[in-house]
Amino acid sequence: MGTDELCTEKEVVRLVHAFYARVRQDEILGPIFDAHIDDWDRHLARLVDFWSAILRRTARFSGAPMPRHAALPGLSMELFERWLGLFEATLADQPNRALAEQAGRAARRIAQSLWSGYQMSRDPKALPPLVGRA
Q1: Assuming Cys at both sites, which of 4, 49, 87, 133 could form a disulfide with 60, CB separation 3.0 to 4.6 Å?
Q2: Are 132 and 124 in contact (CB under 8 A)?
Q3: CA distance to 29, 32, 42, 65, 122, per residue, from 25 (Å)
Q4: Distance (Å, rounded) from C-alpha 16 to C-alpha 2?
Q5: Do the Cβ atoms of 97 and 49 come closer than 8 Å?
Q6: pLDDT, tens digit, for every residue of 58-73?
Q7: Whole-model pTM?
Q8: SS (H, E, C) 66-105
Q9: What pLDDT, in 10s, does the model give residues 13-44?
């Protein structure tokens, strides 16, 4: 890892796999994710690309997560907060504190963005509350 790099690719892979292992084991989020993901290996590889693009600026991810999330039925702010809580718990286990801090900031922005987009797709005039700020 160069001196200007936040993290290695191996660290990104470990982070993503550790986090989604928690998600899959979670009694509330696990069934939701399992109902919508047919191929976990492919999905995890895509998520590694996503987080590598964010944390390492690899530009490997292309796509638009918002429409897929907006199409899901019955999501709530509590589910986004639960997702964020699991992510932050996973980050607490990361020895690379700079990675944990940067990924945490990004995850909070992502959770808020997805929640806002989800709400706006249902009620464009409503202002969604902030995730994690209840």
Answers
A1: 49
A2: no
A3: 8, 11, 18, 23, 29
A4: 21
A5: no
A6: 999 988 888 888 888 8
A7: 0.88
A8: HHHHHCCCCCCHHHHHHHHHHHHHHHHCCCCHHHHHHHHH
A9: 999 999 999 999 999 999 999 999 999 999 99
